[in-house]
Input
Amino acid sequence: MAFLHRLYPAQISHRISFLVLVMLILSLFSIWSKNDSSSLDGEHTVSVEYTVAMKRFSNHEDAPWLKDNKQFELIQNSNFNLKSKPFAWLKISNVDGALSPSSRVLINIKRNNIFTPIKLYHFDGTLWQQRSFVSIDNSYKDLVAVMPSSIESPVVYVQLSGRYLRGNVQLLNDSELIRQSKTDSIIDGVYFGILALFIFFNLIIYKVFNRVSHLSYSLLLTVTFIWIASGQGWISFFNEQLTTVPVFTPNSLGILFSFAIALFSRQFLQMKVINPKINKVLYYNQLLAIAFWFLYIVTYQSLPHFIFQLGYVLCSINTLVILLGSILGAIAGIYRGRNNAKLYLLAMIVLISVAISMSLSASGLVNISFSWRTFQLASVLEVIILSIGFVVEHYQKHRELEEIEHKIKDLESELKTYKIDTNSLKSNISDNLVDSQLIPVLAKVLPILPHLLWVKADGNYCVASYKNENSTDEQFIDCNLQLLLDSIGDEKLLRCHKSYLVNLSQPYQLTRRTSADYDLVIGEHRVPIGRKYLSMVRKAFKSSEQY
Output
């Protein structure tokens, strides 16, 4: 165990961390930039120059319509998107008029998860001839058709169908297709290997150090792993039937990704301590994401189109709220002096930029070339940034604990006298981000803690009331109620009202004051109970309740 702790060094330099980050980012960019055979880069990989134009339709149009019609719009980088139209034709034109080169030319189409038939048409001078596209693998996302060897004009057409079908078309030869497949497989193997390694590493840290944020990060990485594997068709490579299971569809996994982001943001940034309001927003949107996911699974492919679109919009809004909440939480963390929040903010900026690009690309509002390869790169950058964030967090926690231990040593004799658990006190102060400068203030509370009755808020300060033989005295404390509760812990103190804490070891009686209001009574003293705290008070003083 001690050996594993040493493997997680606390004294790592921030400058070295950022240098490693920059080097890894530059390396990754160089690897991805060399993948010029990627289908969605929009680069032409054969010597034949060509252009691609598109015409979308609300109704089906047969091939004879194509002969004399010139109402096609040129598309950039050969990326097509049918948007809300159910039908479209692509027009592939050879610029130099030599669409039939000596070597065999293939038309390669990579598309999203809308698996409708795609067909190739050309006119031989007498009749329209048709060819079907075939899948390179069993994912049905990567399609290919052989260019006709002899045609009347240097133009061929591709018939598309399916709302929101989008993808990319390119011309290449056999050797280039093989090289592209090999390159894509190598990059995917490296990517999924990196993700699997980080998932395993974070699970080990969770098991050894009991850090819940590492467990939620493992969940986030796992969902990302399966989401991208599904989007790229790797799920069908292992089991073709899984593509029909709603849980493994990209839409389903995208909703789960939103849930995982909300959970991780709350834990990594300690939102419950840093900003309870943002924590609640993320929590409720996290539950909403699960509700959307469950409804999607139950109603998979059974809803009318406009209902499905409404659900898509609501899920997008939910995801946007989660991302914005995470960004605001990171800003709040930076304001509280948390160094890991700076890196988290950077990771969220990367993620939200990709999410906006992804949404705009899917809706067709702007002509942005977005691919799963882009999302892969963004997720690797995010993994690197957040991993350094974990190191920075650990380094900061280590320094804070050292400072807390140093100050607690001065109170060691008092802590033993009043039977205060030193480790529990350190844990409370560290986990709740209490400033170690307040430890001397806590020293005023420790002598009266066994006799403490209640603590009442007084602006940004508070006043402790305690038994002193036959009377009740007061002690001014130079901190607010929440800091006092965070430091001493809820196993000794209970918040019963926004302005009151009570000592759980005292024999209070829970008494009804009106039909809806209650008090905690001890002797001649009454402490009011706020309605939002009543259920917690009842659990704590259940045996003493009087009506």
Summary: The first strand starts at residue 50 and ends at 57. The two ends are 54 Å apart (CA to CA). Residues 372-409 form the longest helix (38 residues). The mean pLDDT is 80.
